[in-house]
Write a sequence for this structure.
Protein backbone atom coordinates (compact mmCIF):
# COMPACT_ATOMS: atom_id res chain seq x y z
CA UNK A 1 0.00 0.00 0.00
CA UNK A 2 2.77 2.39 0.97
CA UNK A 3 4.50 1.63 -2.26
CA UNK A 4 1.39 2.33 -4.27
CA UNK A 5 0.97 5.65 -2.54
CA UNK A 6 4.58 6.45 -3.14
CA UNK A 7 4.30 5.72 -6.84
CA UNK A 8 1.15 7.80 -7.03
CA UNK A 9 2.85 10.68 -5.24
CA UNK A 10 5.88 10.46 -7.50
CA UNK A 11 3.84 10.59 -10.66
CA UNK A 12 1.89 13.50 -9.23
CA UNK A 13 5.12 15.33 -8.52
CA UNK A 14 6.43 14.47 -11.97
CA UNK A 15 3.29 16.00 -13.41
CA UNK A 16 3.83 19.40 -11.84
CA UNK A 17 7.55 19.40 -12.30
CA UNK A 18 8.90 21.46 -15.16
CA UNK A 19 11.56 20.29 -17.56
CA UNK A 20 15.01 20.75 -16.12
CA UNK A 21 16.06 24.32 -16.85
CA UNK A 22 19.57 24.11 -15.45
CA UNK A 23 22.13 21.33 -15.70
CA UNK A 24 25.26 20.90 -13.65
CA UNK A 25 28.12 18.61 -14.51
CA UNK A 26 30.51 17.89 -11.71
CA UNK A 27 33.84 16.61 -12.94
CA UNK A 28 36.64 15.03 -10.97
CA UNK A 29 38.10 18.49 -10.32
CA UNK A 30 35.24 19.42 -8.02
CA UNK A 31 34.97 15.98 -6.42
CA UNK A 32 38.70 15.77 -5.67
CA UNK A 33 38.66 19.20 -4.14
CA UNK A 34 35.57 18.28 -2.16
CA UNK A 35 36.94 15.10 -0.68
CA UNK A 36 40.35 16.58 -0.02
CA UNK A 37 38.93 19.57 1.79
CA UNK A 38 36.58 17.30 3.74
CA UNK A 39 39.63 15.29 4.83
CA UNK A 40 41.26 18.50 6.01
CA UNK A 41 38.17 19.92 7.66
CA UNK A 42 37.35 16.72 9.47
CA UNK A 43 40.91 16.52 10.90
CA UNK A 44 40.60 12.86 10.12
CA UNK A 45 44.32 12.26 10.13
CA UNK A 46 44.76 13.55 13.68
CA UNK A 47 41.76 11.54 14.80
CA UNK A 48 43.12 8.42 13.19
CA UNK A 49 46.48 8.86 14.83
CA UNK A 50 44.84 9.41 18.20
CA UNK A 51 42.57 6.39 17.79
CA UNK A 52 45.39 4.22 16.54
CA UNK A 53 47.51 5.14 19.54
CA UNK A 54 44.93 3.72 21.95
CA UNK A 55 45.01 0.05 22.85
CA UNK A 56 43.02 -1.75 20.21
CA UNK A 57 40.68 -4.49 21.29
CA UNK A 58 41.41 -7.55 19.25
CA UNK A 59 44.98 -6.63 18.42
CA UNK A 60 46.89 -9.80 19.25
CA UNK A 61 50.27 -9.10 20.76
CA UNK A 62 53.31 -10.69 19.17
CA UNK A 63 54.99 -13.08 21.50
CA UNK A 64 58.08 -11.52 22.94
CA UNK A 65 57.17 -7.98 21.95
CA UNK A 66 55.90 -5.53 24.51
CA UNK A 67 54.61 -1.98 24.56
CA UNK A 68 53.19 -2.06 21.05
CA UNK A 69 52.06 1.27 19.65
CA UNK A 70 50.80 2.67 16.39
CA UNK A 71 52.48 5.88 15.34
CA UNK A 72 53.16 8.02 12.31
CA UNK A 73 49.93 7.60 10.41
CA UNK A 74 50.89 8.91 6.97
CA UNK A 75 49.19 11.62 5.03
CA UNK A 76 46.59 9.74 3.01
CA UNK A 77 46.60 9.93 -0.74
CA UNK A 78 43.07 9.82 -2.06
CA UNK A 79 42.15 8.49 -5.47
CA UNK A 80 38.60 8.87 -6.71
CA UNK A 81 36.92 7.28 -9.70
CA UNK A 82 33.40 7.65 -11.03
CA UNK A 83 31.40 4.45 -11.04
CA UNK A 84 28.60 4.82 -13.62
CA UNK A 85 25.17 4.53 -12.09
CA UNK A 86 26.55 4.25 -8.59
CA UNK A 87 28.71 7.14 -7.47
CA UNK A 88 32.37 7.34 -6.67
CA UNK A 89 34.88 4.73 -5.67
CA UNK A 90 37.34 6.02 -3.18
CA UNK A 91 40.77 4.66 -2.42
CA UNK A 92 42.67 6.11 0.50
CA UNK A 93 46.30 5.04 0.52
CA UNK A 94 48.04 5.53 3.81
CA UNK A 95 50.60 3.95 6.01
CA UNK A 96 51.55 3.61 9.63
CA UNK A 97 54.32 2.37 11.82
CA UNK A 98 53.76 -0.10 14.62
CA UNK A 99 56.48 -0.05 17.22
CA UNK A 100 57.30 -2.19 20.22
CA UNK A 101 60.14 -3.53 22.36
CA UNK A 102 61.46 -7.00 21.83
CA UNK A 103 62.34 -9.12 24.86
CA UNK A 104 65.98 -8.82 23.80
CA UNK A 105 65.65 -5.09 24.48
CA UNK A 106 65.70 -3.96 20.84
CA UNK A 107 63.15 -1.74 19.18
CA UNK A 108 60.76 -3.38 16.79
CA UNK A 109 59.13 -1.57 13.89
CA UNK A 110 56.57 -2.76 11.41
CA UNK A 111 55.83 -0.28 8.65
CA UNK A 112 52.65 -1.06 6.80
CA UNK A 113 51.24 0.64 3.75
CA UNK A 114 47.61 0.01 3.03
CA UNK A 115 44.67 1.01 0.91
CA UNK A 116 41.22 1.67 2.25
CA UNK A 117 38.68 1.30 -0.53
CA UNK A 118 35.00 2.02 -0.40
CA UNK A 119 32.19 2.99 -2.70
CA UNK A 120 30.53 6.30 -2.05
CA UNK A 121 27.03 5.71 -3.29
CA UNK A 122 25.31 8.84 -4.55
CA UNK A 123 21.65 9.11 -3.72
CA UNK A 124 19.00 11.74 -3.45
CA UNK A 125 17.89 12.58 0.07
CA UNK A 126 14.14 11.96 -0.03
CA UNK A 127 13.37 14.49 2.65
CA UNK A 128 15.97 17.11 1.88
CA UNK A 129 15.91 16.82 -1.93
CA UNK A 130 19.72 17.04 -1.79
CA UNK A 131 22.39 14.75 -3.19
CA UNK A 132 23.94 12.60 -0.48
CA UNK A 133 26.85 10.20 -0.47
CA UNK A 134 26.95 7.16 1.75
CA UNK A 135 29.80 4.69 1.87
CA UNK A 136 29.55 0.97 1.45
CA UNK A 137 31.85 -2.00 1.01
CA UNK A 138 34.78 -0.58 2.95
CA UNK A 139 37.83 -2.84 2.66
CA UNK A 140 41.43 -2.70 3.77
CA UNK A 141 44.12 -4.01 1.42
CA UNK A 142 47.71 -4.42 2.46
CA UNK A 143 50.11 -2.89 -0.03
CA UNK A 144 53.43 -3.53 1.70
CA UNK A 145 54.97 -4.57 5.02
CA UNK A 146 58.48 -3.80 6.18
CA UNK A 147 59.96 -4.73 9.48
CA UNK A 148 63.27 -4.76 11.32
CA UNK A 149 62.44 -8.01 13.12
CA UNK A 150 65.00 -10.79 12.74
CA UNK A 151 64.09 -12.78 9.67
CA UNK A 152 63.46 -16.01 11.60
CA UNK A 153 60.64 -14.26 13.51
CA UNK A 154 59.19 -12.87 10.40
CA UNK A 155 56.89 -15.06 8.45
CA UNK A 156 54.74 -16.73 11.01
CA UNK A 157 54.46 -14.19 13.77
CA UNK A 158 54.10 -11.15 11.66
CA UNK A 159 51.61 -12.89 9.46
CA UNK A 160 49.53 -13.82 12.45
CA UNK A 161 49.77 -10.35 13.82
CA UNK A 162 48.88 -8.73 10.52
CA UNK A 163 45.98 -11.06 9.96
CA UNK A 164 44.41 -10.14 13.23
CA UNK A 165 45.29 -6.50 12.92
CA UNK A 166 44.19 -6.08 9.36
CA UNK A 167 41.02 -8.03 9.53
CA UNK A 168 39.80 -7.13 12.97
CA UNK A 169 41.35 -3.90 14.05
CA UNK A 170 42.01 -1.77 11.02
CA UNK A 171 38.55 -1.87 9.42
CA UNK A 172 37.03 -0.74 12.71
CA UNK A 173 39.61 1.96 12.93
CA UNK A 174 39.74 3.19 9.37
CA UNK A 175 36.31 2.60 7.85
CA UNK A 176 34.55 5.06 10.15
CA UNK A 177 37.05 7.60 8.86
CA UNK A 178 35.57 7.26 5.38
CA UNK A 179 32.11 7.88 6.81
CA UNK A 180 33.37 10.82 8.81
CA UNK A 181 34.78 12.41 5.67
CA UNK A 182 31.49 11.92 3.83
CA UNK A 183 29.66 13.76 6.58
CA UNK A 184 31.72 16.78 5.62
CA UNK A 185 31.23 16.25 1.90
CA UNK A 186 27.47 16.02 2.38
CA UNK A 187 27.45 19.06 4.61
CA UNK A 188 28.90 21.11 1.78
CA UNK A 189 25.82 20.45 -0.34
CA UNK A 190 23.37 21.40 2.34
CA UNK A 191 22.57 24.77 0.87
CA UNK A 192 22.29 23.63 -2.72
CA UNK A 193 18.51 24.01 -2.87
CA UNK A 194 18.04 26.95 -0.51
CA UNK A 195 16.13 29.90 -1.99
CA UNK A 196 18.50 32.71 -2.97
CA UNK A 197 17.41 36.31 -3.36
CA UNK A 198 17.40 38.26 -6.60
CA UNK A 199 17.72 41.61 -4.83
CA UNK A 200 14.26 42.47 -3.51
CA UNK A 201 12.60 41.15 -6.66
CA UNK A 202 12.17 37.50 -5.80
CA UNK A 203 14.05 34.29 -5.19
CA UNK A 204 15.60 31.44 -7.15
CA UNK A 205 15.70 27.96 -5.72
CA UNK A 206 17.78 25.38 -7.51
CA UNK A 207 15.63 22.33 -6.75
CA UNK A 208 16.78 19.00 -8.11
CA UNK A 209 14.63 17.70 -10.94
CA UNK A 210 15.72 14.09 -10.51
CA UNK A 211 18.29 12.05 -8.64
CA UNK A 212 21.82 12.91 -9.78
CA UNK A 213 23.32 10.51 -12.30
CA UNK A 214 26.89 9.28 -12.52
CA UNK A 215 28.76 8.50 -15.74
CA UNK A 216 32.40 7.53 -16.29
CA UNK A 217 33.52 11.14 -16.29
CA UNK A 218 31.07 13.22 -14.32
CA UNK A 219 28.08 13.46 -12.03
CA UNK A 220 25.15 15.26 -13.59
CA UNK A 221 22.64 17.15 -11.52
CA UNK A 222 19.48 18.36 -13.30
CA UNK A 223 17.64 21.22 -11.68
CA UNK A 224 14.07 22.38 -12.06
CA UNK A 225 14.71 25.83 -10.70
CA UNK A 226 11.87 27.51 -8.87
CA UNK A 227 11.64 31.21 -9.68
CA UNK A 228 9.41 32.99 -7.23
CA UNK A 229 8.12 36.53 -6.82
CA UNK A 230 8.20 38.07 -3.34
CA UNK A 231 4.47 37.44 -2.91
CA UNK A 232 5.12 33.77 -3.51
CA UNK A 233 3.87 33.48 -7.08
CA UNK A 234 5.96 31.01 -9.04
CA UNK A 235 7.10 31.83 -12.54
CA UNK A 236 7.02 28.80 -14.76
CA UNK A 237 10.17 27.78 -16.57
CA UNK A 238 8.88 26.82 -20.00
CA UNK A 239 11.27 24.88 -22.19
CA UNK A 240 12.01 26.34 -25.61
CA UNK A 241 10.28 24.29 -28.30
CA UNK A 242 10.47 21.23 -26.06
CA UNK A 243 14.10 20.87 -27.03
CA UNK A 244 16.22 18.72 -24.73
CA UNK A 245 19.07 20.56 -23.10
CA UNK A 246 22.52 19.32 -23.89
CA UNK A 247 26.05 20.24 -23.04
CA UNK A 248 28.21 20.93 -26.05
CA UNK A 249 31.14 18.61 -26.59
CA UNK A 250 34.75 19.46 -26.13
CA UNK A 251 35.25 20.47 -22.53
CA UNK A 252 38.43 19.31 -20.83
CA UNK A 253 38.32 15.84 -19.29
CA UNK A 254 37.49 16.03 -15.60
CA UNK A 255 36.19 19.60 -15.76
CA UNK A 256 32.82 20.88 -14.55
CA UNK A 257 30.15 22.93 -16.29
CA UNK A 258 26.87 24.66 -15.56
CA UNK A 259 24.23 25.11 -18.24
CA UNK A 260 21.52 27.76 -17.88
CA UNK A 261 18.74 27.42 -20.42
CA UNK A 262 17.18 30.37 -22.22
CA UNK A 263 13.89 29.26 -20.66
CA UNK A 264 15.35 29.60 -17.18
CA UNK A 265 16.90 33.01 -17.93
CA UNK A 266 13.52 34.10 -19.29
CA UNK A 267 11.86 33.08 -16.02
CA UNK A 268 14.50 34.97 -14.04
CA UNK A 269 13.98 38.10 -16.08
CA UNK A 270 10.23 37.87 -15.58
CA UNK A 271 10.99 38.92 -12.00
CA UNK A 272 12.21 42.21 -13.44
CA UNK A 273 9.23 43.01 -15.67
CA UNK A 274 7.78 45.75 -13.52
CA UNK A 275 11.14 47.23 -12.66
CA UNK A 276 11.84 47.62 -16.36
CA UNK A 277 9.30 50.42 -16.64
CA UNK A 278 10.75 53.86 -17.18
CA UNK A 279 8.88 56.76 -15.70
CA UNK A 280 8.83 60.26 -17.03
CA UNK A 281 11.80 62.13 -15.81
CA UNK A 282 12.94 65.65 -16.21
CA UNK A 283 14.88 65.91 -19.43
CA UNK A 284 18.43 65.02 -18.71
CA UNK A 285 21.47 67.09 -19.32
CA UNK A 286 23.95 66.33 -22.02
CA UNK A 287 23.23 64.20 -25.01
CA UNK A 288 19.63 63.50 -24.19
CA UNK A 289 18.66 67.13 -24.10
CA UNK A 290 19.47 67.23 -27.79
CA UNK A 291 16.40 65.09 -28.42
CA UNK A 292 13.77 67.73 -28.83
CA UNK A 293 10.47 68.05 -30.59
CA UNK A 294 12.42 69.41 -33.51
CA UNK A 295 13.49 65.93 -34.54
CA UNK A 296 9.84 64.79 -34.57
CA UNK A 297 8.74 67.87 -36.45
CA UNK A 298 10.43 66.63 -39.58
CA UNK A 299 8.19 63.50 -39.57
CA UNK A 300 5.03 64.89 -38.02
CA UNK A 301 3.81 68.24 -39.35
CA UNK A 302 1.51 68.81 -36.37
CA UNK A 303 4.45 68.72 -34.00
CA UNK A 304 6.06 71.52 -35.96
CA UNK A 305 2.86 73.56 -35.69
CA UNK A 306 2.32 72.92 -31.99
CA UNK A 307 5.92 73.48 -30.95
CA UNK A 308 7.49 76.16 -33.09
CA UNK A 309 10.06 76.50 -30.34
CA UNK A 310 11.64 73.08 -29.77
CA UNK A 311 10.93 71.42 -26.42
CA UNK A 312 12.90 68.57 -24.87
CA UNK A 313 11.25 65.21 -25.24
CA UNK A 314 10.50 63.09 -22.19
CA UNK A 315 9.15 59.57 -22.31
CA UNK A 316 7.58 56.78 -20.40
CA UNK A 317 8.15 53.11 -21.15
CA UNK A 318 6.00 50.27 -19.89
CA UNK A 319 6.77 46.63 -20.47
CA UNK A 320 3.49 44.77 -20.78
CA UNK A 321 4.65 41.22 -21.47
CA UNK A 322 7.21 39.20 -19.54
CA UNK A 323 10.65 39.70 -21.11
CA UNK A 324 11.93 36.82 -23.17
CA UNK A 325 15.50 35.63 -23.63
CA UNK A 326 16.51 33.88 -26.83
CA UNK A 327 19.91 32.33 -27.38
CA UNK A 328 21.45 31.29 -30.66
CA UNK A 329 25.02 30.11 -30.91
CA UNK A 330 27.11 33.21 -30.31
CA UNK A 331 24.36 35.69 -29.50
CA UNK A 332 21.65 36.25 -26.97
CA UNK A 333 18.75 38.66 -27.17
CA UNK A 334 16.28 40.07 -24.71
CA UNK A 335 12.87 40.68 -26.30
CA UNK A 336 10.69 43.39 -24.84
CA UNK A 337 7.10 44.26 -25.71
CA UNK A 338 5.56 47.40 -24.36
CA UNK A 339 4.57 50.97 -24.92
CA UNK A 340 6.57 54.09 -25.44
CA UNK A 341 4.77 57.32 -24.64
CA UNK A 342 6.35 60.57 -25.68
CA UNK A 343 5.76 63.95 -24.10
CA UNK A 344 7.00 67.45 -24.72
CA UNK A 345 8.53 68.93 -21.59
CA UNK A 346 6.90 72.18 -20.55
CA UNK A 347 8.57 75.44 -19.85
CA UNK A 348 8.87 76.66 -17.20
CA UNK A 349 10.14 73.51 -15.58
CA UNK A 350 7.92 71.84 -13.06
CA UNK A 351 4.82 71.99 -15.24
CA UNK A 352 3.51 68.57 -16.28
CA UNK A 353 4.73 67.55 -19.72
CA UNK A 354 2.30 67.50 -22.66
CA UNK A 355 1.35 64.12 -24.13
CA UNK A 356 2.39 63.71 -27.74
CA UNK A 357 1.66 60.11 -28.73
CA UNK A 358 1.93 56.48 -27.72
CA UNK A 359 3.61 53.69 -29.68
CA UNK A 360 3.28 49.97 -29.15
CA UNK A 361 6.80 48.67 -29.50
CA UNK A 362 8.59 45.38 -29.81
CA UNK A 363 12.33 45.63 -29.66
CA UNK A 364 15.24 43.51 -28.61
CA UNK A 365 18.44 44.11 -26.74
CA UNK A 366 21.68 42.23 -27.14
CA UNK A 367 22.71 40.65 -23.85
CA UNK A 368 26.27 40.38 -22.65
CA UNK A 369 26.80 37.94 -19.82
CA UNK A 370 29.45 37.98 -17.16
CA UNK A 371 29.87 36.71 -13.62
CA UNK A 372 30.71 38.94 -10.72
CA UNK A 373 30.85 37.85 -7.08
CA UNK A 374 29.31 34.51 -8.03
CA UNK A 375 26.27 36.20 -9.56
CA UNK A 376 25.31 36.11 -13.19
CA UNK A 377 25.35 39.62 -14.58
CA UNK A 378 23.79 40.89 -17.77
CA UNK A 379 24.35 44.13 -19.62
CA UNK A 380 22.41 45.11 -22.71
CA UNK A 381 22.55 47.34 -25.73
CA UNK A 382 19.84 47.95 -28.28
CA UNK A 383 19.83 45.45 -31.10
CA UNK A 384 16.74 46.29 -33.14
CA UNK A 385 13.34 47.88 -33.05
CA UNK A 386 11.19 45.14 -34.57
CA UNK A 387 7.82 46.78 -34.73
CA UNK A 388 6.13 50.08 -34.03
CA UNK A 389 2.37 50.55 -34.00
CA UNK A 390 0.67 53.84 -33.36
CA UNK A 391 -1.72 54.28 -30.46
CA UNK A 392 -3.28 57.43 -29.01
CA UNK A 393 -1.90 60.68 -30.42
CA UNK A 394 -2.38 64.37 -29.77
CA UNK A 395 -0.53 65.24 -32.94
CA UNK A 396 -2.66 63.41 -35.48
CA UNK A 397 -1.75 60.48 -37.67
CA UNK A 398 1.71 59.83 -38.98
CA UNK A 399 3.71 57.01 -40.45
CA UNK A 400 5.16 55.24 -37.42
CA UNK A 401 7.71 53.35 -39.43
CA UNK A 402 9.48 56.55 -40.29
CA UNK A 403 10.13 56.98 -36.59
CA UNK A 404 12.03 53.68 -36.27
CA UNK A 405 15.46 55.29 -36.38
CA UNK A 406 14.48 57.96 -33.89
CA UNK A 407 12.90 55.43 -31.53
CA UNK A 408 15.97 53.20 -31.70
CA UNK A 409 18.29 56.09 -30.85
CA UNK A 410 15.99 57.26 -28.10
CA UNK A 411 15.71 53.82 -26.51
CA UNK A 412 19.45 53.27 -26.63
CA UNK A 413 20.18 56.65 -25.05
CA UNK A 414 17.35 56.95 -22.53
CA UNK A 415 15.97 53.50 -21.83
CA UNK A 416 18.84 50.98 -22.13
CA UNK A 417 20.65 52.60 -19.16
CA UNK A 418 17.48 52.05 -17.11
CA UNK A 419 17.46 48.35 -18.09
CA UNK A 420 21.14 48.00 -17.28
CA UNK A 421 20.59 49.62 -13.88
CA UNK A 422 17.86 47.11 -13.08
CA UNK A 423 20.03 44.22 -14.28
CA UNK A 424 22.77 45.19 -11.84
CA UNK A 425 20.77 43.19 -9.30
CA UNK A 426 22.54 40.01 -10.52
CA UNK A 427 21.27 36.44 -10.46
CA UNK A 428 22.42 33.83 -7.96
CA UNK A 429 24.04 30.64 -9.24
CA UNK A 430 23.81 27.20 -7.60
CA UNK A 431 25.82 26.92 -4.40
CA UNK A 432 28.38 24.39 -5.59
CA UNK A 433 31.26 23.88 -3.17
CA UNK A 434 34.74 24.86 -4.35
CA UNK A 435 33.55 26.54 -7.54
CA UNK A 436 34.49 30.16 -8.13
CA UNK A 437 32.01 31.27 -10.76
CA UNK A 438 33.91 34.53 -11.27
CA UNK A 439 36.61 32.53 -13.04
CA UNK A 440 34.18 30.65 -15.30
CA UNK A 441 34.45 30.88 -19.06
CA UNK A 442 31.13 31.69 -20.65
CA UNK A 443 29.88 30.13 -23.84
CA UNK A 444 26.73 31.00 -25.71
CA UNK A 445 25.37 27.85 -27.33
CA UNK A 446 22.02 26.96 -28.88
CA UNK A 447 19.29 27.83 -26.36
CA UNK A 448 21.65 28.04 -23.41
CA UNK A 449 24.47 29.78 -21.65
CA UNK A 450 27.23 27.42 -20.50
CA UNK A 451 29.72 28.25 -17.78
CA UNK A 452 32.93 26.26 -17.86
CA UNK A 453 33.66 26.17 -14.16
CA UNK A 454 36.93 26.78 -12.40
CA UNK A 455 37.86 26.13 -8.82
CA UNK A 456 39.20 28.70 -6.38
C1 LIG B 1 46.54 0.96 -3.59
O1 LIG B 1 46.02 2.19 -4.09
C2 LIG B 1 46.77 2.75 -5.12
C3 LIG B 1 46.12 4.05 -5.47
O2 LIG B 1 44.78 3.87 -5.76
C4 LIG B 1 46.84 1.81 -6.31
O3 LIG B 1 47.63 2.37 -7.32
C5 LIG B 1 47.40 0.47 -5.86
O4 LIG B 1 47.36 -0.44 -6.93
C6 LIG B 1 46.64 -0.09 -4.68
N1 LIG B 1 47.29 -1.28 -4.21
C7 LIG B 1 46.65 -2.40 -3.84
C8 LIG B 1 47.47 -3.53 -3.41
O5 LIG B 1 45.41 -2.45 -3.87
Amino acid sequence: MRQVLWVALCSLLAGVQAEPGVLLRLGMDVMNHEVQSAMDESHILEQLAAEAGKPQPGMKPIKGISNMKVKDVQLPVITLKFVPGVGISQCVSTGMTITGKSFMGGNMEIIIVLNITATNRLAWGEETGLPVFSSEGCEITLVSVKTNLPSNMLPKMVKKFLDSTLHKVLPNLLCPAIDAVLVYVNRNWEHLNDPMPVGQLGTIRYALAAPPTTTVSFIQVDFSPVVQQPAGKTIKVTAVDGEALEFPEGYAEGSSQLLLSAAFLTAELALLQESLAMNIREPMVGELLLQTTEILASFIPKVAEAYPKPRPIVAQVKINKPPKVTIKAGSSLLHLHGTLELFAAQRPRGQPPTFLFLLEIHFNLRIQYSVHENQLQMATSLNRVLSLTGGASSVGNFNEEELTGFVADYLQAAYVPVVNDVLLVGFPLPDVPAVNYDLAELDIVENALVLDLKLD
